[in-house]
Amino acid sequence: MKQELLESMGLGTKSVHAGQRPDPETGAVMTPIYQTSTYAQSAPGVHKGYEYGRVSNPTRTALEGNLAGLESAAHGISFSSGVAATDAIARCLKPGDHIVASNDLYGGTYRLFREVFRPFGITSDFIDMSDLEAVRQAITSNTRLLWIETPTNPLVRIVDIQALSDIGHEQGAAVAVDNTFATPILQRPLELGADLVVHSTTKYLGGHSDAIGGVVCTNDNEWNERLRFLIKSAGAVPGPMDCFLTLRGTKTLHLRMERHCSNAQALAEHLVQHPKVSKVYYPGLPDFDGHELAKRQMDGFGGMVSFLLVNDSLEAANTVLSSTQVFTLAESLGGVESLINHPATMTHASIPVEERRAAGLHDALIRLSVGIEDIDDLIGDVDRALSTL
Ligand SMILES: *Cc1c(COP(=O)(O)O)cnc(C)c1O
To answer: Would you say the CB of residue 204 lies under 6 angstroms from ligand 1?
Structure first.
C-alpha cells in the first residue's frame, strides 16, 4: 500500500500497514529480520541506503515507520529500551539547562534525570502537573524541557497535555510526553501540541512481554536529526529481532487495547463495590479525579487499575499478592497476560518511605496490569485473592 494513502486511514489500518511493504527482493509479506551488521557496497560509498547496522537496519526502519504512523509523526527513532529513548532526549540538553518533570512519573526517568544527568549540570524539578500554576512557577529562563507522563504510574492520574504544551512553548521549552501507559490508540500527544512522544515499546506496543525497546516520535526535523545523530554516535540501538517482535506486536495493538480497556473498566467497577477495597484508581470511573479530562484527551481509559485495601498494611497486601493464580506477580505491564504488582516493595521501592506515603503510594496499594483474558476469570481471581484476607 502507498504510505501516503495510509495517512487518511484509521489507526487499526495503520497498526497493520504503516511503515511496511512487501520485501522488494522476495515479496515476503512480513518484513524479514535483517540479521546483519553490514551491507555490501557496489563501489566505495555506493549503497542502497544502508551502510552499517548501528546506523540503520531495514527491520528497524519498518518499525520506525509503523510507530511514527501510529503517533501521526513524520519521524520515529527507535532505541534499545524506553530509558535509552529518554536518555537520548536529555542528552540534547547542555550544562545549565533545566528540566521540569511530573512528580508522579516512571521511577527510571526520575533516577535518570536525578542521578545520571544532574552530575553533568542538567537540573530537574518534579512538580504536580495537575497544578498548571505550579508548573508555570517551576519554569525558569533555563528550562529547556517539560517532561509529562499521563496517565501516571501507579495512581493513573491524568494531566492536561494541551495546556501544558502551551505553557512549555510560551517559555521556549520543548514538550515531551511519555505515552507508554496510553499508547497512540488511546492518546496522541503530538496532535495535542507536544513536540516529542516517548514510549517504552516493552509494554503495550510490543504487548507480549518478550522484547525490550523504546521510541521517540516527532514532527520536528531538528529533533529528528539530533536524535539520529545521537543513536549513531552513542549507539543505543535495538536489535533486528526485537524490532521484528515489536512490529509483530503493533499489528494487533488496536484490538488488544480495546480488550485491555473493557476488562480494566469491568474490573475497576467490580472492585469499587468490594467490601475489602477502600479506593480504586481508574480514569474510567465517573467520580475519578481525572475522568472528565481523560474523556477529552483520550479515546479510552487504558488497562491499568490500582486499588487500596481497607486494611492498609504490608501483611494484607502480601496476602493478596501471593494468592492470585491468573494474575502473575511481576514488574512491568502492558502484555497480553495480567500482572499484579506491589508499588511499595517492587516498582517504587527506591522512593524513601515518607516520600512514598506522601505521594499516596500506601503500603496496601496494589497495581494491576489488566490483560486480555476472559473478564470473568480475572474478576474471579481477584475475588478469590481478596477472600483470603
Ligand atoms: C517501562 C517504562 C519506561 C522504561 O522503559 P524500558 O523499556 O523498561 O527501558 C518508561 N516509562 C514508562 C511509563 C514505563 O512504564
So the answer is: no
Question: Is residue 132 within 8 Å of residue 105, measured between CB atoms?
Answer: no
CATH at residue 156? 3.40.640.10
Q: Which atom of ligand 1 is nearest to the CA of 332?
A: 1
Domain count, the chain: 2
d(CA 337, CA 268): 17
pLDDT in tens, 85-97: 999 999 999 999 9
- Whether 106 is a known active-site residue: answer yes
- Structure-block grid coordinates of residue 283: 480514569
| pLDDT value, residue 355 | 76
- CA-to-CA distance for 67 and 342, rounded, in angstroms? 31
- Give the residue-averaged pLDDT of 314-339: 97
Provide the domain limits for residue 218: 3-250
* Of 151, 104, 385, 364, the residue nearest 270 (C-alpha): 385
Give the per-residue pLDDT at 364. Answer: 95
Burial readout 225-248 (b: 16 or more C-beta within 10 A, e: otherwise): ebbeebbeeeebbbbbebbbbbbb
pLDDT digits (tens, 9 = 90+) for 69-79: 999 999 999 99
